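Standup notes, structure subgroup. Blocker cleared on the histidyl-adenosine monophosphate input:
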Amino acid sequence: MPKNKSFPRLPGFRDFAPEALAEREHVFRSWRRVARRYGFQEYDGPPLEPLELYREKSGDEIVGQLYAFVDKGGREVALRPEMTPSLARMLGERSRAMAKPIRWFSIPQLFRYERQQRGRLREHFQLNVDILGEPRTGADAEVLAVAVDALRELGLGPDDFVARVSDRRLLSAVLAALGVPADRMAATFSDIDKYERVGVDATRERLRASAGLAGRRVDSLLEILDGSGLDVVEELLGEREAVGASLDELQRYRADLTAMGLAPFLRFDLRIVRGLAYYTGIVFELFDRKGKLRAICGGGRYDQLLQRVGGEPLAAVGFGMGDVVLTELLRDRGLLPDVAPSMDWFIASVSPAQRLLGREIAHVLREAGSTVAYALEQRPVRKQLAMAARQGARKVILLGPEETARGVAVIRDMTHGTQHEVSLADLRLGSLAS
Ligand code: HAM
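Run returned:
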């Protein structure tokens, strides 16, 4: 006989047994509550898209991680690695007819062939919240407020996480003021993006090679990147027109968030660049305060993407918040709910003669909305009670021959251990349903 084969799970993919699924649903429910509170409507799209959609729109990093193949019709397709290109495609087809601003949210499952590392898997779920059709900072502040509230709703506070905010326009203005030529901007952004990973010496070297930055100018840039807040930028380059204009926009943005009471979560930090190619303005990432985990959330403004996928020119801003790092953080803080099973009722029969009566009562209770379980086949009462406890039943209905002959059943309260009798007529009417 050939040996039975075992089938391990693919690396980077998760099973969601009931306890894990209950945790996931807890997070999703909080996300939905917050998004709806801010007036966002939920949408979804297909998990498989034309490969082309990501080739130019997402940037090299994500394209290198695509699950892509040729389908039976000869089309080049890819599992969605992010939602933003699908959103742009969907709205490109219909946004002209829609009232603006558009406020949409979604919770897609996404697929990226990532290198195995803590907090990064090959599939994850991501809350996506986007506002389209609003070019000024009111929309930027609004989406950041949703991101912060999505975490507050789960019990996290300003000691647990921080939103690091930057602005690509401001960074461009700073780099231009320091003499970085326009054709070196993208490479310089990429150097800054890697600053925290590679350290100061490697970054100095990279900036010299890619942007020709050296001497006092590279010192100024590093001072700006290391400085917390916008004061250093203001002090060094605030006089420059483009820098000053970007700083004014950021002050307006900060004022909105401060008015909402969210200032304690906010930190301006020009080291945040974001890897994706399409961002054009304010960008942000949310991190755990201790800085131990990968980003919980990332987003920003992408004003040109819709036009680039064939739609009307439509300003856009939004974020993606993943479930992987977030669930780790919630577990670490003891903020995941108790996911033990629970039932309203368990029906226990003393002998097979009560089987049909048990089924009848169970059905009446279920029709009335209660959760009800019982042993599918006759078991000793002792075992049935153990089953009731395992399933988290709050109350047990005991059906015995002597009691049913008197037209009653015994109800046992599993929490308090008390018992009392009720009439079968009442049970049949569903008047005890909880
Ligand atoms: P992103 O930074 O690539 O942005 O992903 C956003 C968040 O998704 C990350 O901060 C992280 O929590 C989670 N995430 C990403 N990749 C993985 C992974 N391999 N495993 C676990 N979690 C992951 C975007 O995807 C943009 N499309 C977000 C956006 C929406 N921008 C505007 N609108």
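Discussed briefly. Residues 82-84, 112, 114, 120-121, 124, 126, 128, 130, 276, 295-299, 318-320, 322, 324-325 surround histidyl-adenosine monophosphate (CB under 6 Å).
Next: hand off to the docking folks.
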